């Protein structure tokens, strides 16, 4: 988050428009890989903001590797989400309006492992049962992306 951190030096915690990518990773059983985030301590998707000169797909690949140690052969574009529903205030006070490209990772290689300081743990979850302490954006991403969740 170098670019965003640099901007924060100028604007403090004021709202920023943050463009990024979110990666949905499913195992053979159709379970979704989530990370228990260090900033909010809830379960959320892999993803993050663009760096200067980076494409949305490049950001998806970078975040997948940085946060879970995984490499995808390709990424299937699902949708872009933006607007007032994408507002978020971090526990430490920074405010953002996300513009988020949602991708599904295809032919993922490697075993998920916490690979940075943004996650406490990684775990696969079934979409057929409610997920306790689910990040509100993850629920929003799944609903708006057309995934069938049974909760």
TrEMBL record:
Keywords: Hydrolase. The lineage of its organism: Bacteria, Bacillati, Bacillota, Bacilli, Bacillales. PROSITE patterns: NUDIX (PS51462), NUDIX_BOX (PS00893). It comes from Paenibacillus anseongense. CDD domains: NUDIX_Hydrolase. Belongs to the Nudix hydrolase family. It holds the Pfam family NUDIX. Its cofactor is Mg(2+). PANTHER family: 8-OXO-DGTP DIPHOSPHATASE-RELATED, GDP-MANNOSE MANNOSYL HYDROLASE. Coiled coil: none annotated. This is NUDIX domain-containing protein. Residues 16-147 form the Nudix hydrolase domain.
